[in-house]
Design goal:
This protein has two domains: 86 residues, RimM (Elongation Factor Tu (Ef-tu), domain 3), CATH 2.40.30; 70 residues, Roll (SH3 type barrels), CATH 2.30.30.240. The chain is 9% helix and 45% strand. Strands 1-2-5-4-3-6 form a six-stranded antiparallel barrel. The chain has a six-stranded mixed β-sheet with strand order 10-9-8-7-12-11, with no helix packed on it. It starts with a strand and ends in a 10-residue tail after the last strand.
């Protein structure tokens, strides 16, 4: 199975090699269960990492990896992506999906009109925003009010657009 992005490595925390992990939707226990990851740097380089410790830190996580000792060693991983084998991820649960499963879904309105493909997800303070590209680019708030159905088998998301949203593009 292909690797999927679990999160992005942020700046070091302290001097012992601990790093912030941004954009991760897994819990510390789920990360511990995965244990082995691939790190991919901004220039495409990669290396295997084994998780040593993870702990919550406000809205992010702090992680340490075996063999990454000290702030300088940790700094070499900053801005890289942390990837895991998608087959090893825990089940997202009934009616739930991982963000990587949503990218590439066809998006249509409740009356069947095609809006395009979900190409990106922006995290915001309140809720994520789905970027859909078709004839136009539309940004859909990721809330139950607007995202009506997600059918992973059919690779289709059905949305109800807020009045005037398409006029903003």
């Amino acid at each position: 199975m292909p690797d999927v992005v679990i999160g992005r490595i942020g700046r070091p925390h302290g001097v012992a090699g601990e790093l912030y992990l941004d954009g991760c939707s897994l819990t510390p226990l789920e990360l511990n269960d995965l244990e082995r990851f691939t790190w991919r740097g901004v220039r495409g380089e990669s290396r295997s990492l084994v998780l040593r410790q993870v702990r919550p830190a406000n809205t992010r996580l702090l992680v340490t990896f075996e063999g990454i000792v000290g702030r300088d060693a940790a700094a070499q991983l900053v801005n890289g992506e942390l990837l895991a084998d998608s087959a090893r991820l825990p089940d997202a649960g009934p009616g739930e999906a991982y963000l990587f499963q949503l990218i590439g879904l066809a998006v249509e309105t409740e009356d069947g009109r095609s809006l395009g493909t979900l190409v990106e997800i922006f995290p915001t303070g309140a809720h994520p925003v789905y970027v859909v590209r078709g004839e136009r680019e539309v940004m859909v708030p990721a809330t139950p009010e607007f995202v009506l159905r997600v059918d992973l088998e059919r690779k289709l998301m059905t949305v109800a657009l807020p009045a005037g949203l398409e006029d903003l593009s």
